[in-house]
């Protein structure tokens, strides 16, 4: 208990996900999942990300149902501005032809933005409420109740988003170029020659370089988003440790952090469009 009131204990508690896992004795939670291996579910990340995804769908469905041909209201104007913003960037960046890219880019931008936006909620508010509920309703020690409300501070979620983009990249490459064209792109570039014997020796080098370049793209997507939001959340947690003075300090950092929240959603969307445009290119 004493460890929890120290600064390191405070930080560690806020940076720990609520976990659920399966053990020999049944379902286990949090500390009991420390040695459960790979299949440990971060239930707070799943709940908040799915909930915010449903919120995105509800907002845009509501806007579509209430859309009018005449003078639009403020809500419709706001939604149309977002759609136009994403559509313009897709038209300028994506060189191929696909009806999937614009809705995908819109989903990524708004969903990642909403998940990032959770970072502006005071770090002690919802975790303290979760601890209160766990203590009063389930008889748990409040210090054993964990709640991370910013899904993008969990590397598992950002990696999952990046893996989805990676699978789309590979899928588009194979769809546009064919399986043989995709393999040729990995083995015959960037180094090529008309000498067939020399090309045989260049193929392993090309394969190594192109494979590294291909895999580095989802890695960069996942780590960039996670790193920026994790660092921002850590600063909020440190601010929260000062007590009653945290609110003015929280406000000052939040004003600056709004730029990071929007920028990281935009960067993730733009890199996704660029990577899919590159995968759809048949220039080679």
TrEMBL record:
<feature type="transmembrane region" description="Helical">
    <location>
        <begin position="39"/>
        <end position="60"/>
    </location>
</feature>
<protein>
    <recommendedName>
        <fullName>ATP synthase subunit a</fullName>
    </recommendedName>
</protein>
<keyword id="KW-0472">Membrane</keyword>
<keyword id="KW-0813">Transport</keyword>
<dbReference type="InterPro" id="IPR023011">
    <property type="entry name" value="ATP_synth_F0_asu_AS"/>
</dbReference>
<comment type="function">
    <text>Key component of the proton channel; it plays a direct role in the translocation of protons across the membrane.</text>
</comment>
<dbReference type="InterPro" id="IPR035908">
    <property type="entry name" value="F0_ATP_A_sf"/>
</dbReference>
<feature type="transmembrane region" description="Helical">
    <location>
        <begin position="222"/>
        <end position="244"/>
    </location>
</feature>
<keyword id="KW-1003">Cell membrane</keyword>
<keyword id="KW-0812">Transmembrane</keyword>
<dbReference type="InterPro" id="IPR045082">
    <property type="entry name" value="ATP_syn_F0_a_bact/chloroplast"/>
</dbReference>
<comment type="similarity">
    <text>Belongs to the ATPase A chain family.</text>
</comment>
<keyword id="KW-0375">Hydrogen ion transport</keyword>
<feature type="transmembrane region" description="Helical">
    <location>
        <begin position="155"/>
        <end position="176"/>
    </location>
</feature>
<keyword id="KW-0066">ATP synthesis</keyword>
<dbReference type="Pfam" id="PF00119">
    <property type="entry name" value="ATP-synt_A"/>
</dbReference>
<keyword id="KW-0406">Ion transport</keyword>
<feature type="transmembrane region" description="Helical">
    <location>
        <begin position="251"/>
        <end position="276"/>
    </location>
</feature>
<keyword id="KW-1133">Transmembrane helix</keyword>
<feature type="transmembrane region" description="Helical">
    <location>
        <begin position="100"/>
        <end position="118"/>
    </location>
</feature>
<dbReference type="InterPro" id="IPR000568">
    <property type="entry name" value="ATP_synth_F0_asu"/>
</dbReference>
<keyword id="KW-0138">CF(0)</keyword>
